[in-house]
Amino acid sequence: MNLTRVINKLVFERRYKQILRYATETPSIQNYQLTWLVAHAAGTAFGRQYDFGALFTDQTKTAVDYKAFASHVPLSTYD
Asked: Distance of alpha carbon 2 from its chain centroid, rounded?
């Protein structure tokens, strides 16, 4: 195996697998990210104001329903 193939295997193979996962599992990745963000923001003033705790679909806080989130939290700006 030449040096270029070794470098490609070491450096790019892992990244390629990540890219494939992002391309094929987009909805589950986005739901995981939304759930993580809501769980970590639930204790903030904003999270309490919009009752982030009520957005979870189960008691274990492992999933957030996007439609509930979108209807609970209004669009806003930093201004």
From this structure: 39
pLDDT in tens, 32-68: 999 999 999 999 999 999 999 888 877 777 788 888 8
CA dihedral 24, 26, 29, 35 (to 10 degrees): -150
3-24 and 26-41 helices, crossing angle to 10°: 70
CB–CB of 79/62 below 8 Å? Answer: no
CA distances from residue 37 to 30, 41, 43, 51 in whole angstroms, order as listed: 11, 6, 11, 14
**CA nearest to 64, candidates 52, 73, 49:** 52
